[in-house]
Amino acid sequence: MFEILSIKGTINFLRHAVAISALSLVLVIGSLASLAVNGINWGLDFTGGTVVEMEFKNPVDLNQLRAALTSDETDGAVVQNFGSSRDVLIRLPVKEGVKSDLQVAHVMEAAAKVDPGVSQKRVEFVGPQVGKELAEQGGLAVLVALICILIYVSFRFEWRLALGSVAALAHDVIITLGVFSLFQLEFDLTVLAGVLTVVGYSLNDTIVVFDRIRENFLKMRKGTPEDVVNNSITQTMSRTIITTGTTLVVVVALFLKGGTMIHGFATALLMGIFVGTFSSIYVASFLAVKLGINREHMMPVEIEKEGADQDALMP
Amino acid sequence: MLNKYPMWKNLMVALIIAVGAFYAIPNLFGEDHAVQVVATRGAEVNASTQSEVTDILSAKGIAVKRSELENGQLLVRVADADQQLLAKEAIAEVLGDKYIVALNLAPATPQWLESMGGSPMKLGLDLRGGVHFLMEVDMSEAIRKMTEAKIADFRTDLRGEKIRYAGIRNTPKGIEIKFRDAENLAKAERFLKSRTNEMVFVDASSGSDFMLLANMSEIYLKQVKEEALQQNITTLRNRVNELGVAEPVVQRQGAERIIVELPGVQDTARAKDILGATASIEFHMVDEKADAAAIAAGRVSPGSQIYDRRQGGKVALHKEVMLTGDHIQGAQPSFDEYSRPQVSINLDSKGGSIFSNVTKDNIGKPMATLFIEYKDNGAKNPDGSVKMDKIEEVISVATIQARLGRNFVITGLDHSEAQNLALLLRAGALIAPVSIVEERTIGPSLGAENIDNGLQAMIWGMAVVLIFMLVYYRGFGLIANLALTANLVMVVGVMSMIPGAVLTLPGIAGMVLTVGMAVDGNVLIYERIREELRAGRSVQQAIHEGYGNAFSTIADANITTFMTALILFAVGTGAVKGFAVTLMIGIATSMFTAIVGTRSIVNAIWGGKRVKKLSI
Question: pTM for this structure?
Fold first, then answer.
């Protein structure tokens, strides 16, 4: 058979765990620092405001367009290319006493001065109140997701593993947000969807490893918890690489071909897949070991049975 | 014998996949250009309309592909966009303004498929272009209106009961009802409490001030808000219909907001004018006791209020509303004998009887038509909501000549005002003003571009994954690829089957992601089989153990992902909801195809016989 990894024996993943976890910790602290200092570049969905996307007949000089935006209503407009040199996106902040329609009209007027063949592709306006509510809901969603997962994993596995997996998820979410903050990438609703998907994906990875840990604790009579964990990670390694690989391939396809409107989403996923794979080993499993996971914790054998008795029904 | 599926199990797998595939088929047919005909008030679309339309089109030489009459709607399919435009103009010209003629894209699903419930996936606005509005209902205005109505009720009730009161007015603390003595107060309290259980009355007397304070009960307040929202939804639906848009969406969101989606609309300015306008009329009796001098000095009795007249000058009207715009059933702009614009109005039966009573008692007295309009002035309240200006104007004062019934006319408007008022009245009044708090317009070219991008991403991602699986797992890889393809077909099938599911751009991303993540199930199983083989198990044992051991892992991993998708669905709006839906469906179908689907093929090929080597 054709194998990417031909592993003989067990790789001692946990040998470098302290050093690597320290690196993780640095990344998390760095991300938090960046979030504190730079904040997040909230997109229109969260801040409110107006966005106009337009397509010009010819490649357009952004400075010329900026210079044409002279009216008070379009003060504070952010002008940038969006996809190609003919596509331009203009962001306008909410202005007291100015209607969004008026802002859009002024923008189109200015754009027509630069190139009469300009056409409007998309206009979005979000009221500040709506944006604020959404930001609150989004934060709440991530929190609720983490709590639900904590409960489910505690119920299905064990609280030490649950804590490990939630720590890993928090780690992934914080670092993904940190990267968005550091590079000031725009954070809109699709990115939030991406972050939540990262939570789901990363957990997928963690669960696969945990499942094997549970199984091996019951199988391997000898061996320290570290051995069991190392063994489990080694055994699931080729699966991890393959699945990460295929998911990465489709996400890269989304990133390159999916168009500008889901760029943020794909970016969040790209980040999350890397961090998520890594965290299932060095955060989730390592933390569970440090919390003192051992064979006795895995003893309720009935849980094993649950999968076993489904055998007859499903596969 | 190991690894043998009973026949029924294989059949079940085949059947499930076949059903999924069957309902995915309608997506292959694309869309027809069509013209949709809907009747407005007073008209009806029926078989004779259908034949009329067919005649119109054949006279113009436009070939009709298919014409369908359903739910009082006529849908005529034609060959292409050019024919569609010609057809629309021709039909609109002949049928006149009792009908709405709109351009539409109808799924080109064959009739036999359609009769079995087959229809393609619905595309979100981000994929087909159009405009999305989120509107907020100004609840304080709904409450204010209800309070006014209550005050009027109290006046008539107390007067009718011959209980003397000193004054009634609305204050921030509630409705204050003042009395001269304790006796009247006690009588009034007993009487009012027995009459209205939706209000809470508190004796707020202090010293020689005898006062009753009335407030709406919590339940009633909630009911008022609910009714305001519901009525606004109905009104917005009517107005959207007047716009002549095919397949519009008007939907509540939460307690105070309404979503309006108009596919294909590009003229957002007109859409906004019609949707957001809150013009309404009220009929009041003129306060004849207030003379010009009193009005100029602003001294009118507490029961009256001074309004501007559109023609200039001021007039005092009784605050009590004789009739509100809610009862108006139809309104047509027309001209009187001096060719001055007017609006002929007809009322519903309840409105008709109210109006006929009122006018009977007031023959010879002047009655005023008050025009009320709310305008978004662009400013914001401190809480971020839109500030609305209320504009009230008396558009006509006329002496009631005779008892009026359900039909009468309003004059005193110019031509375009008459047109607009008629349209707005016909579409019903908004009980409380609405403001647009979110607007998204997607051009049609961008929609097509988005579909194209999504498909490209899917094709590229899928191709690489399929090739990899085939090279890496060979025979089993091929089976996994079959499962993956079946999975994609089933996602499309299920999406098409669920009536509320809408495909959005993030939804396509969800499908692409499903492709990447769905192989996980098979990878887990196959890696396990390889492991078992390495550990020296027999082929049959390895397959059995592989599937068995991987099952709980796959279940756990997918359940948690499903939970996050569910949360995403709960908080997300529009496009993100679409993503969550496809992800959830994808998880369910991929579990089925990866675990049961592939097993059935594996069993059929290798199961139950002596096999030396597996192609894995």
Answer: 0.78
